[in-house]
Write a structure and sequence with these properties.
GO biological process, one term: signal transduction
Oligomer: single chain
Shape: rod-shaped
Number of strands: 5
Structural class: mainly alpha
Distance between the termini: 114 Å
Order of helices and strands: HHHHHHHHHHHHEEEEE
Main location: membrane
Family: Belongs to the FNBP1 family.
Organism: Frankliniella occidentalis
Strand order of the largest sheet: 4-3-2-1-5
Number of helices: 12
Radius of gyration: 54 Å
Helix content: 55-70%
Pfam families: FCH, HR1_TOCA, SH3_1
Largest sheet: 5 strands, antiparallel
């Protein structure tokens, strides 16, 4: 099958067909280009997806659980999948799109050349046919003139009235015309032969060659499209092994999820180390009348019930609660305030025993790793110094001395820090052993400032009362601060006058807004509060003031330097109108005065009224 023989007269159609073929090749190249763009966009979106779901710094602690760790591995594999789609796009761009562009350019130039050759050949044939037609017309004209001259000669020869001279003129004209007719006939015959030869060559040799070249060009185009399609499949298949590895990695990540392990991790993370609360003691109301009852003192492990669960009928009104929020709420944006145990202190004494020991052990491991690293660096410097001493040409040994001194200082500092945290850990272990023998009312929170005479007595009292007609229970909650953990003796040692610092700039200062009171207060029909000797306490507040919950005595003088706090002198007694809500501050009011404000909880010794 050849276009030259089968399509000898389809020059225009073949020209149109080859042009459409090249246009289709360009269209296929555009398809591959668009696909590359889609692959790149898909890869980019996958990478953006992985980036958007990477754990934030504040979420890193949550990613210790097996589903979270598996999810991080899955994101890594998805990121690798994105890389494979980028590889597909790059290979298609390099091996197909580029080749398609080159071929389209070559095909257009080659087609143009062949079509120009064919057009030139067809022009030559057309010109030859036109020459033949002119020769034929000249011959036809000369033939007619020769016939007319012959007819005139014959009539003149037959006419006896004409002279011999006239007859001779007609004979001469006839001869000339006959010769002209013969010449044009020969020319016509010659042009006819040339035209036939050229036409035969045109349709048998010249144009078939042109059509054959066009056929080869079109077949080459078709073959290349086939190869491009096959090559695109090979390019995509080449990344299948890596994609399968990524999918296998996702399966392996899923297999690492262990619900039992996560359950144990939750226990280790949140276990406080406290024992469940003991039984409530029976409160004999008759003993109150006889004066035998003791004032209710909150023990050193009080409830950690949510503040919103502490407001019952007959307690502080919502207006009073909102007042404190409105006063200090502008500082409440500190995200650290959301920590269940407040901000961690250096010795983690604000954490439950188990959590504190865990944090201290982690800190010791970090310090040990730093000591090992610094020791290795110091050993390297010592070796370098020894080499310099043996061969001074390599360097000055004294240039290492400064680095060695700096390394020694770092090691000393790290060892001191390690010793300090070891002491903290021993203290936590001793405290944990003693706490295991105590049955607090409700685990989770500790009170720091308690009268020493009550704590030394070792008694633990629990505070309950019936509030209003509903008989609901009231819980007073307080969060620990770092100055005293177990008793005021320790408090006095750690908090000598001038030593403890109020949390003026802390996120738990009164300005932070964390101290919003949710403390339950008794109904109006509750018994009058009593002091430590069981005597009735007068109401020190009017209808617009908060009721006094107890009395506190200043252990140290306090200078009020922040908004919302009030100063106090050593030994001054103040009324407690709002308990510490875990921010290290207690709200008080001066006796016989309306001045209210906040003072550091670690600076005062509290006695809570017995309202039962």
């Amino acid at each position: 099958m050849s276009w030259g023989t089968e399509l000898w007269d389809q020059y225009e159609n073949l020209s149109f067909h080859t042009q459409k073929g090249i246009d289709f090749l360009e269209k296929y190249g555009q398809f591959i280009r668009d696909r590359c763009q889609i692959e790149m966009e898909y890869a980019g979106k996958l990478r953006r997806l992985v980036k958007n779901h990477q754990p934030k710094k504040k979420e890193e602690e949550e990613y210790q659980y097996s589903p979270c760790r598996a999810f991080k591995l899955v994101m890594n594999e998805v990121n690798d999948l994105a890389g494979q789609h980028e590889v597909i796009a790059e290979n298609l761009q390099t091996h197909i799109i580029r080749e398609v562009g080159i071929l389209v350019k070559d095909f257009k130039e080659e087609r143009k050349k062949h079509l120009q050759d064919g057009a030139r050949m067809m022009t030559n044939l057309t010109n030859q046919v036109a020459t033949l037609e002119r020769a034929r017309k000249n011959y036809e004209k000369a033939f007619k003139e020769a016939e007319r001259a012959l007819d005139n000669y014959q009539r003149a020869d037959a006419d006896l009235n004409l002279s011999r001279l006239d007859v001779e003129k007609q004979r001469t004209n006839m001869t000339i015309k006959s010769q002209q007719c013969e010449d044009t006939k020969n020319e016509y015959a010659n042009q006819l032969q040339k035209t036939n030869d050229l036409q035969a060559q045109h349709y048998q040799n010249l144009m078939p060659d042109v059509f054959q070249h066009l056929q080869e060009l079109d077949e080459k185009r078709i073959k290349n499209i086939k190869n491009f399609m096959t090559q695109s499949v090979d390019i995509e298949r080449s990344v299948f092994p890596i994609i399968n590895q990524c999918l296998d990695g996702i399966l392996r990540a899923a297999d690492q999820i262990n619900e039992k392990e996560d359950t144990q991790m939750v226990i280790e993370r949140y276990k406080s180390g406290f024992l469940p609360p003991g039984d409530y003691q029976f409160e004999d109301l008759s003993a109150v009348k006889s004066g035998e009852a003791q004032p209710m003192i909150i023990n050193n492990a009080i409830t950690s019930i949510r503040p919103e669960a502490m407001t019952v009928k007959g307690t502080m009104s919502a207006g009073k609660l909102k007042k404190r929020v409105g006063l200090f709420g502008i500082f409440s944006s500190n995200k650290n305030n959301l920590s269940p145990y407040g901000e961690n202190k250096e010795d983690y004494s604000d954490l439950p025993p188990n959590q504190r020991k865990k944090k201290l052990q982690q800190r010791l491991e970090e310090i040990s790793a730093k000591i090992q690293q610094e020791t290795a660096a110091r050993d390297g410097l010592m070796k370098m110094k020894g080499v310099y001493e043996q061969n001074p040409a390599l360097g000055d040994p004294m240039s290492i001395e400064g680095q060695l001194n700096e390394s020694g200082h770092k090691l000393d500092k790290l060892r001191q820090e390690q010793h300090k945290f070891q002491m903290y850990l021993e203290e936590a272990q001793d405290n944990g052993a003693s706490i295991m023998n105590v049955s607090p009312s409700v685990p989770g929170r500790r009170l720091k400032s308690q009268p020493s005479r009550l704590i030394n007595g070792g008694g633990q009292r629990h505070h309950r009362h019936s509030g209003g007609s509903g008989g609901e229970e009231e819980s007073l909650s307080r969060s620990a601060s770092d100055s005293s953990v177990s008793n005021p003796t320790t408090n006095n040692k750690q908090s000598a006058p001038g030593t403890p610092l109020p949390l003026h700039n802390s996120s738990h200062s009164p300005e932070s807004g964390l101290g919003t009171s949710h403390t339950s207060l008794p109904d109006s029909d509750e018994p009058e509060p009593t002091d430590i000797d069981g005597n009735a306490q007068p109401e020190y507040y009017d209808a617009d003031q908060l009721p006094a919950l107890g009395i506190c005595r200043a252990l140290y003088p306090f200078e009020a330097t922040s908004e919302g706090s009030i100063p106090m002198y050593d030994g001054e007694e103040l009324h407690i109108i709002e308990l510490d809500q875990g921010d290290g501050w207690t709200r008080v009011r001066r006796q016989g005065d309306t001045e209210e404000g906040f003072v550091p909880t670690s600076y005062i010794e509290c006695t809570i009224f017995n309202n039962s």
